[in-house]
Write a structure and sequence with these properties.
The protein is an alpha/beta fold and 311 residues long. It folds into two domains: 218 residues, P-loop containing nucleotide triphosphate hydrolases (Rossmann fold, 3-Layer(aba) Sandwich), CATH 3.40.50; 57 residues, no CATH class. The protein is built from ten helices and 13 strands. The strands form three sheets. Strands 5-6-7-3-8-9 form a six-stranded mixed sheet, with helices on both faces. Strands 11-12-10-13 form a four-stranded antiparallel sheet, with helices on one face. Helix 2 crosses helix 3, helix 2 packs parallel to helix 4 and helix 9 packs across helix 10. The longest helix has 16 residues. The chain is elongated. The two termini are 32 Å apart. The C terminus is likely disordered. It binds adenosine-5'-triphosphate (ATP) and magnesium ion (MG). Adenosine-5'-triphosphate binds next to helix 1.
Length: 311
């Protein structure tokens, strides 16, 4: 397996405060990889070190096989967290200009800009000035400018924030299409649902450290499935047959799936006259796994950060 990004032991301090405290990040080529974490976790600082925009105080990073990321900048597309475009430029020129900054000749950039805009159903905005666009539309134009030189590695810092639900869905489609065409995509997000839908692998960062790295599935498997059970009888001696962690919620019994399975619980309940009216066993989502891994404080911060963003 070739790694598009192999960062090890990244450390960054600002004015004596440690923002990133020994982050490793291994992103296999051809994968959609998500970095999750609350505000101030160190996501942006980590991405900026990986891209060579800032140098780490400690640690190394190899990007597309090169330990000096700026030398492979032409093969990288980067959507920074702070968006910004030249207001008086026309959309098509802006996209071509962004390609030129990454080494793509301007005339080719203009042709590709037209193609990208048409593919994204924005064929009619190419001649408009950036200042006339809505915020979400300007962000989409910036994204297309990030992709115009056909980068092998695409790094997107909070790409979904500021987009409405329709444009979030279109961005998900675009990210998958780039992956299918062979690119590697690394993005950061507060919104767990995007990572859950898109990523084969994720890292959860909190307090400048990686708390989890691996597949979304393995993160979910860290928690037991949840059982929601409705008994026909509402009270009785059979209550003792339910696992000790059982809580009543809206007339249902909630508990973690016992490691021995559900059968023995059901058998005892039936034998002792509880009756079974309804039963569901739900695998935990990434959201619950995130809380367990990053802690409740991190979850509260995530909720605050994503207020206003849509899932
Ligand atoms: N240039 C800087 N100077 C001083 N402190 C900084 C600088 N950049 C980041 N920090 C601090 O480093 C920590 C990590 O910030 P960073 O922007 O990497 O977090 P983040 O995970 O991207 O957060 P967010 O979700 O809000 O974007 C924060 O405490 C932040 O205040
Ligand atoms: Mg950030």
């Amino acid at each position: 397996m070739t790694l598009a990004i192999d960062a090890r032991g990244l450390v960054k301090r600002f004015e004596g405060k440690t923002a990133v405290n020994g982050v490793d990040l291994a992103v296999p080529e051809g994968m959609i990889y998500g970095v999750l974490g609350p505000n101030g976790a160190g996501k942006t600082t980590s991405l900026r070190m990986i891209l060579g925009i800032i140098d780490p105080d400690e640690g190394t990073r190899t990007v597309l096989g090169n330990p000096r990321p700026l030398e492979v900048a032409h093969a990288i597309g980067y959507l920074p967290e702070e968006r910004g475009l030249y207001q008086s430029m026309a959309v098509r020129e802006m996209i071509a200009f962004m390609g030129a900054l990454r080494g793509l000749p301007l005339d080719q950039g203009r042709r590709r800009a037209d193609k990208l805009l048409t593919e994204y159903d924005l064929g009619d905005v190419g001649r408009k000035q950036i200042r006339t666009l809505s915020k979400g539309m300007a962000q989409t134009v910036q994204l297309l400018g990030t992709l115009v030189h056909d980068p092998k590695l695409i790094v997107l810092d909070e790409p979904f924030s500021g987009l409405d639900a329709i444009n979030q869905g279109r961005l998900e489609t675009l990210i998958r299409a780039r992956r299918d065409a062979g690119a590697t995509i690394l993005f950061s997000t507060h919104v767990i649902a995007h990572a859950e839908r898109l990523c084969s692998e994720i890292s959860i960062i909190a307090g400048g450290k990686v708390r989890y790295a691996g597949s979304v599935d393995a993160a979910r498997d860290r928690l037991p499935s949840r059982v929601v059970l409705r008994t026909r009888a509402k009270e009785g001696a059979w209550r003792a047959d339910l696992p000790p962690d059982t809580t009543p919620v809206d007339g249902n019994w909630h508990f973690a799936l016992p490691s021995t399975g559900i059968e023995s619980v059901l058998q005892a309940l039936i034998t002792h006259g509880a009756g079974i009216e309804n039963l569901t066993v739900e695998r935990p989502g990434l959201h619950d796994a995130f809380i367990a891994i990053a802690g409740a404080d991190a979850e509260a911060a995530m909720n605050m950060a994503s207020a206003g963003d849509m899932a």
